[in-house]
Amino acid sequence: MNGVFFNRNRRILVFLLLLAVSFSMMGIASTDFAVDFKGVFLTVVYPFEYVINKIFTFFQSLWKGLGDIETLQEELIRTQMHLKRYEELGSSIDALERRNEYLEHLLEERRQVRYEHVLAGIVGKDPQNYYQSFIIDKGTKDGLAKRMPVVAYENGKLGVVGRISVATPTASLVVTIRSQQSYIGVLLDSSRYYGLVRGNGRAANCLVEYVDIDAPARNGDWVITSGQSDIYPSGLSIGILTNISRESGQFFLRAELQPMINFARLENVYVIKKLPSADIEELEREQEKQ
Count of domains in the chain? Predict the structure, then answer.
């Protein structure tokens, strides 16, 4: 019942309520009581303003921080690039120093080669053939020819590598002392006994033949070229004796030769411009026919 009454007279009741509030406010004003609306406004609004200001300050700082992070990342990238360039520059300097030392070493070696020669680099070397041959980057245009001796330095000492087998205008094939095609007349440096060194193919050591069985040879003795070959000058080191044995009733001792040249590490060689004698070459060809 009451609900129906309020629903029907809702507008009138609201009007009367507002009218009562107006009279009450007028009464309050008449008793010299004034409401500090500014204070009320500040009291109500300030906390929200404070929170909003803090949030704004936070996001402003966050945005600035993100900008600083981006700047730091850019600085880091630039620093890393500078560091990489410095490292590359340092590596280049180290490489140049090593190259300079290497060239100085080659220059010093060339001064010690007392024969007219050509410096050549190895451009083709096959470990599968046990370093019995390799290709160098010099040929007939550089004055090279077949049968010219090839030498190299090992630990400051000049040693025999082999000889040129085939020469083209720009490259040459070198047959090493390890090849079965290689024969060199030699001397035992300490006793001056003659012999012959022959390549043993795939074996690491060469064979030493035709050394008198009574020769006072010992393991470790140096073997040098005898000069009796028309290819190699005398006195060039070849290697050291090893695995010496003497069998009763034999005329010659048995031994092996360990080459002084490390063919696996060999990079450059010197070709001695020594042409074989035409007469001796003809005699050798006649001997091969027999």
Answer: 2
The maximal CA–CA distance of the chain, rounded, in angstroms, is 154
Q: What is the pLDDT of residues 100-113, one digit of tens each?
A: 665 555 566 656 66
Q: Identify the domain containing residue 10 by its residue range.
A: 2-34
DSSP secondary structure letter of residue 140: G
pLDDT per residue over 172-216, tens digit each? 999 999 998 899 999 999 999 999 999 998 888 999 999 999 999
Q: Could you tell me if residue 83 is inside a domain?
A: no
132 and 258 assigned to the same domain: yes
E runs forming strands in the chain: 117-125, 133-136, 149-154, 157-167, 172-176, 183-188, 194-198, 206-209, 222-225, 237-245, 254-259, 268-272
Contact 263, 239 (CB under 8 A): no
Please tell me whether residues 275 and 183 are part of one structural domain: yes
